[in-house]
Amino acid sequence: MKKNKKTHFMSGILIVLFVGIFLLVSGRFLYIQATGEIDGVSLKKLAEEKRTASYTLGAERGKIYDRNGMTLAYDRPTYRIQAIIEESYTQDEEEPMHVDNPEETAEMLAPLLDADEAYLLEQLKEGIQEDQFQVEFGNAGKELSQETKEKIEELDIPGIEFVEEPIRYYPNGMFASQIIGFAQKEDDVINGVAGIENEMNKLLSGKDGHISYERDHYNTKLLNPNEVIKQPENGEDVYLTIDQKVQTLLEDAMTQMDNEYNPERMTAIVMNPKTGEVLAMSNRPSYNPNNPEDVQNWYNDAIATPVAPGSTMKLFTWSAAIEEGVYNGDEWFESGTYKISDRVEAVRDHNGGEGWGSITYDEGFARSSNVAAAKLVWEKIGTEEFLDYWNAFDFDEKTGIDLPGEEAGQLVYNYPRDKISTAFGQASILTPIQQMKAATAIANGGKMVKPYVISKTVDPTTGQTLDEKSTEVVSEPISKETSEQMRDLMESVVSSEHGTGNEYKLDDYSVAGKTGTAQIYENGKRLTGHGNNTFSFLGIAPKEDPELMMYVSVKQPDIDVDETGSEPISFIFKNVMQNSLHYLDIEPDKETSDQIQPVKLPEIIDQKTSEVKNKLTDSGLNVAVVGSGNTIEKASAVKGDELLAGDRIILVTDKPKMPDITGWSLRDVLQLADLTELDLEPIGNGYAVTQSIKEGKTIKKNDYLGVEFEPPATDTEETEESNDTSES
């Protein structure tokens, strides 16, 4: 009985505990059912979050255009490959939607992805073993082109899918690369790293949107997905002042001289001196923004690398003397050497201090006399007054050009020798863009304008201009009369028998300019030897009403003993300036008996192909006919345009077919792609050597055309050095 009582007692306790626990659990379930919450967390909301997929809708980065609407940078679609390996993803075994044969899949993909077959197979098998839903193939499966994607799709491999991902693309390769800069993807976001891409990154980037919806295990939307979409705001388009044709002329000429003379550095700028618009700017070394690896020079030397200007500084020394009213061009002085005192090192003219005897100050400018410049500052202007002009030309500050990384020049002006050395471009350093800005006062009637490269920003959706720049006159350091007298002196540099710039004459335009030869110092010692200088030229044309101004500098070119530093510079200047003035329809201001007469084009569009081709060929033009049609539909030039004999003109017929473009320049290939609306990918620089579309194949809009370019072969010889540092 005692045992039974104890048993009943313990059983009662257990029953009470069980009932208590049951009531507690049941109460908890009833509470959860009634409130739909656990620890303050809504189960409904939690379930929705688990079912909801959220994705960022990336804003399309704005495009960068040249002044005429030529695309210089845009987001190019690329593709990332994915292999679905989850068997349950397949609904019908006869039409598998997952990778059902890893070995065959790896074998088929390897050549198209340019990847090792064993590596692809290993990735697939590891994913299957780890029960993954899908696998990817690292770098081998990223940034695939449209062409590669289509080739893979043609194989109809089960389980292979693609995700579109944009990358920043520069269709012209190493074209104005240190102006445009480049942008790179980091954490799935494209950000500007250099150039305009960096300067305008915020406006170009836009604002990302997002999308969210409820989905099942296979990421398929539910019937009622509660979808929420916030559309992205695409980035603004940026238009530059750069002219694609002028820039191409500059790039081609610089590449040719770079290959021929192998200089340490080259820089060139083409600008409208009336407005401050930069039409072209380039440096060597440069880089291809599509593949910025092994870059030798990140800096845009035209704005970021101050150097000794050399004798181009004499432009502003003579300007100061004329403006001060102390200049008499007919006054004579003794050239050769000049000492202001026994304690100060003598100034010597660039021909070893030999000079040219007694000459006038006007002739001293044409001959680029250092003695004349020193005497003007020390005896005529005064060193403190000259310093005022240095500041008036804004040499003490940045130009404010709308590019990142600009540096200001520096002046050493402590001792008498420093002060007179500044007069002829020593004891001071300036950037090329600072010299160009200052020279606008000479070309523009005394008005100095601010240089700029961004023309406007545009809303890509509406086409509305959001911001537009215009000419900004920053000051008037000299008068109109001084500027006119300076242009006369600059013309004498090019045209007079004593001038140092005779090699810069153009056939049908007058040129005014100034040559420069600057010393180079390394480890505190001046380099000697033939070619161990920085050679430069700053010129304007036409002389009376300048439409273009150009600066070119070449550092340490590999020149022969019988060559001067002007050889590569004059080639670049004359080719770019002459052709740019013609392209811009600037009226020639001089006539010569041996001037090449341009070919004025007749009506071309809708004319018979054979007749147009024969007529233009007879005129001396290099005619390229695209296709076998009987009628011309498009052409790279139109009626009334003037071309020079030997220029290439492209005629697109009503049945366009791919021509053989071997030997074509980048400029010609760009024109072809523009006319036929091909998706061009230029690779390298120089002249075309291979093309992805075979000759004779019918071409259609948006066909992909990959073209490899190589520089022309040049023979280089070792050159002897000499101590001749004469002005070229």
UniProtKB/TrEMBL annotation:
Uppermost EC category: hydrolase
One MF term in the entry's GO annotations: penicillin binding
Compositional bias (Acidic residues): 715-728
Catalysis: reaction(s): Preferential cleavage: (Ac)2-L-Lys-D-Ala-|-D-Ala. Also transpeptidation of peptidyl-alanyl moieties that are N-acyl substituents of D-alanine
SUPFAM superfamilies (alphabetical): beta-lactamase/transpeptidase-like, Penicillin binding protein dimerisation domain, Penicillin-binding protein 2x (pbp-2x), c-terminal domain
This protein's GO CC annotations: plasma membrane
EC code: 3.4.16.4
Protein name as annotated: serine-type D-Ala-D-Ala carboxypeptidase
Organism: Lentibacillus halodurans
Lineage, broadest ranks: Bacteria, Bacillati, Bacillota, Bacilli, Bacillales
